[in-house]
């Protein structure tokens, strides 16, 4: 009888050990499966991020991007406090405005600022690209009550190869956009708020460091319209 009890006890212990071993095996299998899945997700995520272009590769775009100007305008206005007078300023676009301001418009407070910037162009017909250090950007601005308005127009250039009188709009780097808007805010502080003008001129600071081919006035929309890039007070 005692030997039978020992045998039964041994059998139960073996069964319990088998359950423990099976549970451990299942746990290891689940852990291994989760680790593999996690590794696969990480690898997939890494591949997705590796295909995203860095800001430096996107900085020389030939695309005209109004959103870049709007975002930079708001960043300089509200984060850097370029116009720290408590007024609300907005940026809009008008692709037909000129540098001419009528007497009636002047009475309403409109002023004009025209500057040069470095930009890149791409022909929609032949896909040829070219840089230019003499891209003309025109701003109209005024302040009424506590609301300020800026209206911007970029001027285009035509392709030398196609000569089809189609003016392509320029693309700008982040740095060029920021520099142009900083100069604009300097003019606004001078002409609207009476501050001293610390601007160093109408041309882009970085444009002087970049070599481009001689400017062809017959291919420049602003030159054809007789718009000068000298500062307007």
From TrEMBL:
Query: Has UniProt tagged this entry with the keyword Transmembrane helix?
Result: yes
Molecular function, one GO term: olfactory receptor binding
Location, primary (coarse class): membrane
Q: Name one Pfam family in it.
A: Zn_ribbon_3CxxC
Q: Which domain of life is it from?
A: Eukaryota
Looking up InterPro entries in the UniProt record yields: R-trans_p, ZAR1/RTP1-5-like_Znf-3CxxC
Q: How does it sit in the membrane?
A: Single-pass membrane protein
SMART domains cross-referenced by the UniProt entry = zf-3CxxC (SM01328)
Where is the protein situated, by its record's location annotation? Membrane
Q: Name one GO cellular component term.
A: membrane
Name assigned to this protein: Receptor-transporting protein 4-like
Q: Which organism is it from?
A: Seriola dumerili (Greater amberjack)
